[in-house]
Amino acid sequence: QLQLVESGGGLLQAGGSLRLSCAASVSGRTFSSFTMGWFRQAPGKDREFVAAIRWPTDVPLYGDSVKGRSTISRDNTKNTVYLQMNSLKPEDTAVYYCAASSIIVIVPTTSDQFGWWGQGTQVTVSS
Protein backbone atom coordinates (compact mmCIF):
# COMPACT_ATOMS: atom_id res chain seq x y z
CA GLN A 1 0.00 0.00 0.00
CA LEU A 2 2.84 2.39 0.81
CA GLN A 3 6.59 2.35 0.24
CA LEU A 4 8.92 5.03 1.50
CA VAL A 5 12.40 5.88 0.25
CA GLU A 6 14.58 8.44 2.01
CA SER A 7 17.38 10.41 0.42
CA GLY A 8 19.61 13.36 1.23
CA GLY A 9 21.78 12.06 4.03
CA GLY A 10 25.55 12.12 4.13
CA LEU A 11 28.53 13.65 5.88
CA LEU A 12 27.95 17.23 6.96
CA GLN A 13 29.71 19.88 8.99
CA ALA A 14 28.47 21.20 12.30
CA GLY A 15 26.62 24.44 11.78
CA GLY A 16 25.52 23.42 8.34
CA SER A 17 22.16 22.36 7.00
CA LEU A 18 20.55 19.29 5.55
CA ARG A 19 17.44 18.54 3.59
CA LEU A 20 16.10 15.05 3.66
CA SER A 21 13.47 13.83 1.25
CA CYS A 22 11.11 10.90 1.53
CA ALA A 23 9.38 9.77 -1.63
CA ALA A 24 6.29 7.64 -1.25
CA SER A 25 4.79 5.10 -3.59
CA VAL A 26 1.12 4.85 -2.70
CA SER A 27 -1.73 2.66 -3.83
CA GLY A 28 -5.33 2.62 -2.71
CA ARG A 29 -5.15 5.91 -0.90
CA THR A 30 -3.83 9.38 -1.55
CA PHE A 31 -0.50 10.45 -0.09
CA SER A 32 -2.09 13.56 1.39
CA SER A 33 -4.20 11.41 3.72
CA PHE A 34 -1.20 10.10 5.64
CA THR A 35 0.42 11.67 8.65
CA MET A 36 4.12 11.73 7.82
CA GLY A 37 6.94 11.71 10.31
CA TRP A 38 10.69 11.66 10.73
CA PHE A 39 12.49 9.72 13.40
CA ARG A 40 16.16 9.13 14.01
CA GLN A 41 18.25 6.54 15.77
CA ALA A 42 21.83 6.96 16.90
CA PRO A 43 24.02 3.95 17.72
CA GLY A 44 23.12 2.49 21.08
CA LYS A 45 20.13 4.78 21.53
CA ASP A 46 16.38 4.44 21.19
CA ARG A 47 14.58 5.71 18.14
CA GLU A 48 13.79 9.40 18.66
CA PHE A 49 10.95 11.45 17.30
CA VAL A 50 12.11 14.34 15.11
CA ALA A 51 9.10 15.82 13.36
CA ALA A 52 5.68 15.06 11.94
CA ILE A 53 3.18 16.73 9.69
CA ARG A 54 -0.29 15.74 10.62
CA TRP A 55 -3.22 14.70 8.51
CA PRO A 56 -5.72 16.27 7.90
CA THR A 57 -4.54 19.61 9.28
CA ASP A 58 -0.88 19.58 8.05
CA VAL A 59 0.05 21.15 11.36
CA PRO A 60 3.71 20.33 12.11
CA LEU A 61 5.06 18.91 15.33
CA TYR A 62 8.73 18.83 16.38
CA GLY A 63 10.85 17.01 18.88
CA ASP A 64 12.51 19.11 21.54
CA SER A 65 16.00 18.40 20.25
CA VAL A 66 15.28 19.92 16.82
CA LYS A 67 12.61 22.46 17.60
CA GLY A 68 13.42 25.91 16.29
CA ARG A 69 15.93 24.73 13.71
CA SER A 70 13.91 22.25 11.69
CA THR A 71 11.05 22.41 9.23
CA ILE A 72 8.95 19.53 7.99
CA SER A 73 6.97 20.04 4.82
CA ARG A 74 5.22 17.99 2.18
CA ASP A 75 4.48 18.25 -1.52
CA ASN A 76 1.44 16.14 -2.19
CA THR A 77 1.83 16.58 -5.94
CA LYS A 78 5.16 14.75 -5.68
CA ASN A 79 4.18 12.33 -2.89
CA THR A 80 7.17 13.60 -0.95
CA VAL A 81 7.85 14.84 2.56
CA TYR A 82 10.91 16.88 3.46
CA LEU A 83 12.91 17.62 6.56
CA GLN A 84 15.04 20.76 6.59
CA MET A 85 17.41 21.01 9.52
CA ASN A 86 19.73 23.92 10.22
CA SER A 87 22.50 24.61 12.72
CA LEU A 88 23.52 20.98 12.68
CA LYS A 89 25.25 19.52 15.71
CA PRO A 90 27.35 16.37 16.07
CA GLU A 91 24.56 14.96 18.22
CA ASP A 92 22.30 15.06 15.16
CA THR A 93 24.31 12.12 13.84
CA ALA A 94 21.93 9.22 13.35
CA VAL A 95 20.05 7.15 10.84
CA TYR A 96 16.99 9.15 9.85
CA TYR A 97 13.78 7.30 9.06
CA CYS A 98 10.68 8.45 7.28
CA ALA A 99 7.40 7.03 8.54
CA ALA A 100 3.72 7.17 7.67
CA SER A 101 0.51 6.73 9.59
CA SER A 102 -2.91 6.15 8.08
CA ILE A 103 -4.87 7.04 11.20
CA ILE A 104 -5.66 10.40 12.71
CA VAL A 105 -3.21 10.91 15.55
CA ILE A 106 -3.37 14.02 17.68
CA VAL A 107 0.22 13.75 18.87
CA PRO A 108 2.12 11.49 16.48
CA THR A 109 5.44 11.19 18.30
CA THR A 110 5.95 7.49 18.99
CA SER A 111 7.08 4.74 16.66
CA ASP A 112 4.06 2.53 17.30
CA GLN A 113 1.76 5.17 15.82
CA PHE A 114 3.33 4.71 12.40
CA GLY A 115 2.71 1.66 10.26
CA TRP A 116 5.10 2.23 7.36
CA TRP A 117 8.80 2.95 7.44
CA GLY A 118 11.56 3.71 5.02
CA GLN A 119 14.92 1.99 5.08
CA GLY A 120 16.66 4.99 6.62
CA THR A 121 19.39 7.36 5.52
CA GLN A 122 22.59 8.00 7.44
CA VAL A 123 23.38 11.53 8.56
CA THR A 124 26.80 12.16 10.07
CA VAL A 125 27.68 15.58 11.44
CA SER A 126 31.33 16.27 12.09
CA SER A 127 32.57 18.91 14.51
Helix and strand layout, with pairings?
Blueprint: E1 2-7, E2 10-13, E3 18-26, E4 35-41, E5 48-53, E6 60-62, E7 70-75, E8 80-85, E9 94-101, E10 116-117, E11 121-126
The total of helices stands at: 0
- Portion in beta strands: over 45%
User: What is the mean pLDDT?
Assistant: 96
Low-confidence parts lasting 5 or more residues at pLDDT below 50? none
What share of residues is helical?
A: under 10%
| Main β-sheet description | 7 strands, mixed
What shape does the CA trace take? globular
Order of helices and strands: EEEEEEEEEEE
- The helix-and-strand class reads mainly beta
Number of strands: 11
Q: How large, in whole angstroms, is the Cα Rg?
A: 14 Å
**End-to-end C-alpha gap:** 40 Å
Structural features:
mainly beta, 4-stranded antiparallel β-sheet, 7-stranded mixed β-sheet
